[in-house]
C-alpha cells in the first residue's frame, strides 16, 4: 500500500502527515504538500507511530462488566434515552463531546441532540479551550470568525504572542514564525507571566501580572488614540468606539504589573508597525474574564485598522485538532450548525427545515460547567460522553467525578478501556481511534483537512458518528441513514449553503455535491468555499457580520487577580491533554517524567521547599503532590504546574482537582489557567 495522507490528531496547527502501514504498525512523516506544515512535524507528531499500539484498547461494547454485542448495547442506550426524555423531558439528557471528534462525528451529535431530541444540552471540551475566543469574535464581528491565515505570521513585521507558549503548544507554527524571523527580522513579543521557552526566542518578554492582559491592550488602545494612530475610515464602521476608548483611558497601568519602560517598549513595537499579528491561546481564553480579554485585543486591531490585511490581524490559536470543526457544526451548547445563531428564529427555521427536524431546540443549552452541575444535582439523568475524559480535565474534577458517578445512566464512547471517566460508565462503547477514523478536521486558520485511516479499527470498535446514527435510528428518527462519512460531509456542506444565504461566514457549499471519490481525494482547503467567495482573509472590505455590517468595540474594565499564591497551569512540550495517547510513547515520557511544581527561589526559601522534594498544592479542599522544580522562570507567588497527570490520589498529581475554575460569565469558559492555592512542603 502506498502512503496515505492524513492529519495529526494533536494540536490546532493541523499538520499533514503521510502514513505508511507496516507489518507492526505505521510509519509517519510530515506531508511536504500540506500547506500548514510543509513537511514539518513536532515531537508529538513525530512520535505518533509509538502511540497507536493495541495496549489498553476497548474492543467490545460493555454493559456493566459484561461484554455485549452492538445491537444489545445500542438498543439499551436508545431505550434509556427515550425513556428518560419521555419521563423527564429532553433537557434531562445531555451529550458531552470533544475537540478530538471529527467534524462528521460532531455534526451527527448536534443534529441528534439539537434537531431531534429537542434540547441544546450538548457541550464539548472545546468549552475549556476556545469558548472565550468564540464569544469575543461574535461580540466584535457578529460571527465566530478567525480573520487571518497562517501566512500572516510570516508576513507580519511584529508578532505578539499573548498567553501562549507557542514553542511547546503549537510548535510547527512557531517554527514557521522563527523561519520568517530569520529571513526578514520579524519582531516577536511574548506576554506571559512565566518566562517560557517561547520567550527565549522573543525580542521582548513582558511578564504580565496574572489577569493583566486586558489592561495592557486597553492601555495600548489609549496610547494609539493619544498618538493619533486610530484608523478614522475604519472607525466610521465600528460601534462602541467612544465607550471602549473611555474604558481604555481609565485603565490603571498598575494592573499590568509592568513598568513604564516595558509599557513604552510594547507600545512602540505594536503601534510602530502596520503589519501586526496578535495571537493568543489558553492564557487569554481560560480566564473568568476571558471574553473581555479577547475583546480588548480585538478592539486594538479594529481601531487601528490592523485586520483583514496580509500580515495584520488578531489570531486565536486553537488548542485541539478540531475545535474549529466543532464550532462549524455548532458544537457548543449556545450555537447552531454552520455558525448560525440558536437564538435567531429565522436561523432556527432554516435548520429545522433543512433537517426536517421534529423538535429543534429553541434556546441555548447548558455550558460544560453548568452541565456537570446539572448532572450532579440530578436534573440530567442520562449522559453520553464521547472522546474525552472530563473526570480529569474539568475544573473541580472531583465534583465532576461524583456527579457522573451519581448519574442514573452514563454512556462513554472511547477507544481506551480504562480512562478515569470510562470507569464510571454504565455502558462503554469502543470507539475507532486516530489512524482508523475517516473524516475531516479544521485547523486554526480555517483549513479543512482529511483524516484518513490506515487500518481497520480493532475488535468491534466503530466510528463515533456511526454509534450516534445507530442510536438515532433506534429512537425512531429519520435522517440518520448515512453509511459513509462522505455523505455527512456533503450534508453539512449543503446546510452551510443555507447558512451562507442567511449571512453566515461559514459556507463550504461548493462541496455539497461531493462524491465518495471526491471526498477520498479532497485536498486541504480554507473556508469559505462557495461559488462567490473562496478562502482568504475576512474583513478586508471593512464590512463585518453583524446585520448592519458594522463591527463592535467593547468597553472592557480590566480586573485584578488577587491572592498571595496564584498557580498558573499549562502543557508541557511532549504531552497532550490527559496523556491517554502521548503517555504510551517512551520517548515522549522522557521529556517530563512526572508532575511537578515550578516555583521561584524566593518562594522555595520562604516556604521551605527543597529542590526535587515534594510540595503539597492545595485548593478546593483537595491537594496534589508535585515534585519541586526551583526556577526563576516563574515569578514569586506564581508557581506553575502542568495539567496532564491524572489519577485519583494526590500523589498522582491531578491538578484539575485543586483549581477552582470559575466560569467567564459571557463564554462559560472556566478559568483553568490560574487559581489561588496554598503550597507547603510534603
Ligand atoms: Fe501535530 Fe501540532 Fe505538532 Fe503539528 S504542531 S505535528 S499538529 S502536535
From TrEMBL:
<keyword id="KW-0500">Molybdenum</keyword>
<keyword id="KW-0004">4Fe-4S</keyword>
<keyword id="KW-0560">Oxidoreductase</keyword>
<keyword id="KW-0534">Nitrate assimilation</keyword>
<comment type="similarity">
    <text>Belongs to the prokaryotic molybdopterin-containing oxidoreductase family. NasA/NapA/NarB subfamily.</text>
</comment>
<protein>
    <submittedName>
        <fullName>Molybdopterin-dependent oxidoreductase</fullName>
    </submittedName>
</protein>
<keyword id="KW-0408">Iron</keyword>
<keyword id="KW-0479">Metal-binding</keyword>
<feature type="domain" description="4Fe-4S Mo/W bis-MGD-type">
    <location>
        <begin position="1"/>
        <end position="56"/>
    </location>
</feature>
<keyword id="KW-0411">Iron-sulfur</keyword>
Amino acid at each position: 500500500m502506498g502512503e496515505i495522507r492524513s492529519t495529526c490528531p494533536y494540536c490546532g496547527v493541523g499538520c499533514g502527515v503521510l502514513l505508511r502501514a507496516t507489518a507492526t504498525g505505521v510509519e509517519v512523516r510530515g506531508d511536504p504538500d500540506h500547506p500548514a506544515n510543509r513537511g514539518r512535524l513536532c515531537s508529538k507528531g513525530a512520535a505518533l507511530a509509538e502511540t497507536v499500539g493495541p495496549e489498553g484498547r476497548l474492543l467490545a461494547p460493555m454493559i456493566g462488566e459484561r461484554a455485549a454485542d452492538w445491537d444489545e448495547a445500542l438498543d439499551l442506550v436508545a431505550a434509556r434515552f427515550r425513556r428518560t426524555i419521555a419521563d423527564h423531558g429532553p433537557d434531562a439528557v445531555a451529550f458531552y463531546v470533544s475537540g478530538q471528534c471529527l467534524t462528521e462525528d460532531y455534526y451527527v451529535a448536534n443534529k441528534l441532540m439539537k434537531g431531534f431530541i429537542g434540547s441544546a444540552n450538548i457541550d464539548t471540551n472545546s468549552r475549556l479551550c476556545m469558548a472565550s475566543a468564540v464569544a469575543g469574535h461574535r461580540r466584535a464581528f457578529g460571527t465566530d470568525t478567525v480573520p487571518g491565515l497562517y501566512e500572516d505570521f510570516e508576513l507580519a513585521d511584529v508578532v505578539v504572542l499573548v498567553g501562549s507558549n507557542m514553542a511547546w503548544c503549537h510548535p510547527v507554527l512557531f517554527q514557521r514564525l522563527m523561519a520568517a524571523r530569520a529571513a526578514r527580522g520579524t519582531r516577536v513579543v511574548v506576554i506571559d507571566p512565566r518566562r517560557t521557552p517561547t520567550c527565549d526566542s522573543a525580542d521582548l518578554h513582558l511578564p504580565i501580572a496574572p489577569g493583566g492582559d486586558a489592561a495592557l491592550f486597553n492601555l495600548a488602545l489609549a496610547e494609539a488614540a493619544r498618538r493619533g494612530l486610530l484608523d478614522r475610515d475604519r472607525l466610521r464602521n465600528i460601534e462602541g468606539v467612544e465607550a471602549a476608548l473611555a474604558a481604555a483611558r481609565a485603565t490603571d497601568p498598575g494592573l499590568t504589573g509592568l513598568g513604564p519602560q516595558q509599557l513604552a517598549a510594547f507600545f512602540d513595537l505594536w503601534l510602530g508597525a502596520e503589519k501586526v499579528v496578535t495571537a493568543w491561546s489558553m492564557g487569554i481564553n481560560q480566564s473568568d474574564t476571558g471574553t473581555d480579554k479577547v475583546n480588548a485585543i480585538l478592539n486594538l486591531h479594529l481601531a487601528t485598522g490592523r485586520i483583514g490585511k496580509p500580515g495584520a490581524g488578531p489570531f486565536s490559536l486553537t488548542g485541539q485538532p478540531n475545535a474549529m470543526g466543532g464550532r462549524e457544526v455548532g458544537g457548543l451548547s449556545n450555537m447552531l450548525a454552520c455558525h448560525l445563531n440558536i437564538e435567531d428564529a429565522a436561523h432556527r427555521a432554516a435548520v429545522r427545515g433543512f433537517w426536517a427536524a421534529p423538535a429543534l431546540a429553541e434556546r441555548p443549552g447548558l455550558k460544560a460547567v453548568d452541565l456537570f452541575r446539572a448532572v450532579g444535582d440530578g436534573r440530567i439523568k442520562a449522559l453520553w460522553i464521547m472522546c474525552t475524559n472530563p473526570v480529569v480535565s474539568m475544573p473541580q474534577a472531583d465534583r465532576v467525578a461524583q456527579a457522573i458517578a451519581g448519574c442514573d445512566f452514563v454512556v462513554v464512547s472511547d477507544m481506551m478501556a480504562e480512562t478515569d471517566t470510562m470507569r464510571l460508565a454504565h455502558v462503554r462503547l469502543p470507539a475507532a481511534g486516530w489512524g482508523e477514523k475517516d473524516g475531516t478536521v479544521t485547523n486554526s486558520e480555517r483549513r479543512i483537512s482529511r483524516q484518513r485511516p490506515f487500518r481497520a479499527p480493532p475488535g468491534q470498535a466503530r466510528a463515533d458518528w456511526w454509534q450516534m446514527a445507530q442510536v438515532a435510528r433506534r429512537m425512531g428518527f429519520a435522517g440518520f441513514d448515512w453509511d459513509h462519512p462522505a455523505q455527512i460531509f456533503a450534508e453539512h456542506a449543503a446546510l452551510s449553503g443555507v447558512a451562507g444565504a442567511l449571512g453566515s461566514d461559514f459556507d463550504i457549499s461548493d462541496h455539497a455535491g461531493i462524491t465518495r471519490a471526491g471526498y477520498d481525494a479532497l485536498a486541504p482547503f480554507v473556508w469559505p468555499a462557495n461559488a462567490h467567495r473562496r478562502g482568504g482573509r475576512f474583513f478586508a472590505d471593512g464590512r463585518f457580520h453583524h446585520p448592519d455590517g458594522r463591527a463592535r468595540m467593547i468597553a472592557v474594565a480590566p480586573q485584578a487577580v488577587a491572592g498571595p499564591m496564584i498557580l498558573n497551569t499549562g502543557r508541557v512540550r511532549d504531552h497532550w491533554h490527559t496523556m491517554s495517547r502521548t503517555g504510551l510513547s517512551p520517548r515522549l515520557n522522557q521529556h517530563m517524567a512526572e508532575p511537578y511544581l515550578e516555583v521561584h527561589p524566593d518562594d522555595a526559601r520562604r516556604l521551605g521547599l527543597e529542590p526535587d522534594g515534594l510540595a503539597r498544592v492545595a485548593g478546593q479542599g483537595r491537594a496534589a503532590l508535585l515534585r519541586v522544580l526551583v526556577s526563576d522562570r516563574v515569578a514569586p507567588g506564581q508557581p506553575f504546574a502542568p495539567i496532564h497527570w491524572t489519577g485519583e490520589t494526590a500523589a498522582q498529581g491531578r491538578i484539575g482537582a485543586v483549581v477552582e475554575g470559575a466560569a467567564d460569565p459571557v463564554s462559560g469558559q472556566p478559568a483553568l489557567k490560574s487559581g489561588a492555592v496554598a503550597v507547603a512542603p510534603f
